[in-house]
Amino acid sequence: MVADFHPLIGEGRSAVGTWLTLPDPSIAEALSDAGFDFLVADGEHGPVDTSELFGLLAATRSASIPLLFRVGANEPVRIMHALDAGASGVVIPQARTVADAERAIAWCRYPPTGMRGIAPRRASGYGRRTAAYLEGANTLVTCAVQIETREALAVLDEILAIPGLDTILVGPNDLAAALGHTGEINHAEVEAAIGARH
Q1: Domain covering 6-171: architecture
Q2: Active-site choice (6, 45, 187, 198)
Q3: Where are the alpha helices (DSSP H) in the chain?
Q4: Mind listing the pLDDT tens digit of every residue in the chain (198 residues)?
Q5: Which of the two ends of the chain, N or C, has the fewest CB atoms closer than 10 A to its terminal CB?
Q6: Is 6 considered catalytic here?
């Protein structure tokens, strides 16, 4: 069963999570019991791939802690692999435009709302719970996009208004570089950009 991240973000309160940048299930298991609200396995800059995601999900299952997967790129196959594996949702890096965010959301949702393909994989109990999973997946699965560029900042209000987008994640390192302050995530302009809509 996919752990639901939405109660955390739907109540308007802060949720505290951490990154899984190593594919060792024992690390995921230990962090699941460390008081975090959610975990994010990193498939963009970290070495975690879909096959290793299975082990991380098994390790976090007993704690029912939501495990999101940051895919390597805004591509349908990467998104669907993560969701079919049973991730609670995906984090999509480098959403620069409204169209980027809309594409990410579409591949997180089943028709008629979106374009995600249906397959009897791990998320639906390998077909045993397909009907129940399909009924709730469009509202259960979390779709987050990363805001990391000047282009994204310029259209952030439009991105935030897109139906089906659950939350955003600011990428401070890439945002700092995009603003001309590489390596300076505490620069005043970077902090102002991040805090402008907090």
Answers
A1: Alpha-Beta Barrel (3.20)
A2: 45
A3: 6-10, 25-32, 50-61, 76-85, 98-108, 130-140, 150-154, 156-160, 172-178, 188-195
A4: 566 666 666 666 678 899 999 999 999 999 999 999 999 999 999 889 988 999 999 999 888 899 999 999 999 999 999 999 999 999 999 999 999 999 999 999 999 999 999 888 888 888 777 888 888 889 889 999 999 999 999 999 999 999 999 999 999 999 999 999 999 999 999 999 888 655
A5: C
A6: no
